[in-house]
Amino acid sequence: MAGYQIVVLGSIVPDPLQTLEPVSTPQGPALKNEAMLPHVLDPWAGHALYEAAALAARVPGSKVTLLSLGPKAKLQQVMMAVGQKVPFELSALDGPAGGFTDAHEVAARLAEAVGRLPGLDRSRLLLFGGWESASRGAGATLQMVGERLAIVDQFFGVDALAVQEGGGLQILERVEGGKHQVSVCAGPPAVLGWATGSLPEPKNNPQIGMANMRGVMPALQKAAAAPVGTGGVRFESVAVPKVARETRIVKDMSPEDIARELLAWIGQD
Amino acid sequence: MDTVLLLSCTEPDGSLPRAALEALSAARAAGGPVVAGLLGQRTGPAAAQLAAAGVARVLSAEAEALAEPRYGTDAAAATALARASGATVVVAPALSRLARVAAGVAQRLGGRIDTHVTQLSAEGGLQVTRWYYRQRIEARLSRAERPWVLLVDPGAFPAASPGAAVPAQVEQVPVELGPELQRTRVTGLRAPTSGEQTIRPDARLLFVAGAGWTKKQADGQAHPERAGELILGFLRASGASLGTSKSLTDQAGEGQKVLEFMSHLNQVGQTGSTPRHPRGLSTCCHGEEPHVVGWRFIRERRAVNLDPGCGWARGKADVLYVADAFQVVERLSALLSAKS
Fold it and tell me: What is the C-alpha to C-alpha distance for residues B239 and B278, in angstroms, rounded to an integer?
C-alpha cells in the first residue's frame, strides 16, 4: 500500500461570532460587508482536515491536499492560521465562497480541479470534506463532486474511520437517534463527509506553519478563476428573522418554587 | 404543473418512517399529482400505508441488496424510481439514508437539489423556504431547473393522516444492483459508549446543559461527578433529550474531566444539530450558539442560570430563572420522580 491521496474539500465561512445581514447584489444575495468580515475555515471542513492529517500520519506514504474555493485574499488570511495546524498541500480556486452560490456549480468546479491534481490515483483517493458547510449548509456539494468523479462509496456524518487489516475502511456515520451506522468499505476511492470526528483542534505548530507556507503562497498565486453563481435560483426573499422574545426575568424565586413552576410547564400538553 | 415524486426508504420491517408521512404533506403542498417511490428490502407495508393515505400510484424498488443503507445501491434505486415516475419534483424526508444519496441522485438526473426545506408553497409557482448560515438567514426561493430534488427536514410538516385502508397499486421498478455497487457492507448500528440513550428525537423537551455545569461552584470547587448524576437523573425522570454546547463537548475531546456521557452527537449549535422539540430548557449555558442556532426550532424556551444579564438568554428565552441549576434540577427531578 503506497498510502492514501486524501483530498479535503473545504472553504471559508464568516467567523461564527459575526452578525450576518443579507444584502442584494447584481449577482444575487450576499452578506453586508462580506469582504470585510473575518473568516475561518468552515468548521466541518476543519474537522475533515484534522482527521485527514491524523490518517496520513498513521499510514506512511499518504498525502493531504486541501482544495479550497474562495476569494484569493480571504483564503490567504485564513491559511495563515490553518497552515499552523497540520501538514497539507493547498490547491486553490479563486471565486466566491458565499452561501448563496449554487452547490451544483461549485461541485462542477471542484470536480474539475480534483481531476486536474497531478498524479491523481483513484485507487488511493479518499475525498474528504464537511458533511455540510456553515454557509450554504446543504450537504450536497461533496456528493455531487463524488458523482462527477464516479465514486459510488460515499459516507456522510462520519465520526470515525479505521483502516482494517487488508485495507478495508471501517466507517461510523451518524444516523437517527444518536447512533452510528457501522460500515466496512473495500477501500478507496471513497467520499467521506465528516461530522465532528473525534479529534480536538490541533495546537499551532510553527514548524508545520513554515513548511506549509512554502506551498501556500505559490498555490494562491496560481489559483485559477472559478466564477460560480446562483444557477437557476430566483431568491424571492432573504432575511434575518427579527423575532426577539419578551423574556421574563425571575430573580427572587426559591429553587423549590422554580422546580414546581418548571414541572407544571413540562407537563403541559 | 409539476409531477411530484415522494421518495422514501422503508424501515427494516417494510413500514413507512414517520418522516415520510410528513414529506407526503410537503409533496402535496407542491400542488401537482403525487406519485410515491419506495426503496428497501420490503416495501409492501409502506405501500399499503401510502395507499391508505390517498396515494394512488406507488413505485417500488425492492431487493435484498437494499436491506443495507449504503450509497451505491440506494442511489441506483432512487434514481431508477425518479426516472420511472417522470417526476419534475422529487420530495424526500431528510432521513440519514436519503440525505446520503439525494444530491447524488439529483446529479444523475441532471437536476438540482435543495435541502433542509422547511416550507413549500405552490402559489405563483413552486417556492421553498430554507435557512442559510446555520439557521441565521432565511430565504424563500424558486428554481428554473428540473428535476428539482427537495429534502424536507423532519418535524417541519404535519404527518399526513392515513385514511381507510385500500389495496395499493404497486409497480415494481427493476434496478441493476451489481457487485460494484456493493463494495460497502453495513455491519450494524452502534449506540453511544456510555450505554445511556440521551438523544431522543421524539422527546417533548430538549434539555441543554452548558459548560457552567463543570465550572467552580459556590464552594470554590468544580463538581462534574455531581453534575453528571443530576443531569442523567433528570433525563431519566423526564424523558428529555440532551443537548449541549460546543464548549462542553470540546472539553471532553481535550481530555479534561467533564461529563463522560457527553459527545459531539449531543452538541447543538454551529457544528451541532438544530433539533425540533416543543420545549427547551437550558441550564448553565451562556453561549450564543445554543440559544440562537441550536434553539431555532424550539417553540417554548426557558433558561436557568446565575447571570440575570445573560445576553443570549434575554430575548431568546421566554423565561430566565436566575438560580443555581444544581439546586433547581435536583428538586425538579425529585418532583418528577414523585409524580411518576
Answer: 13
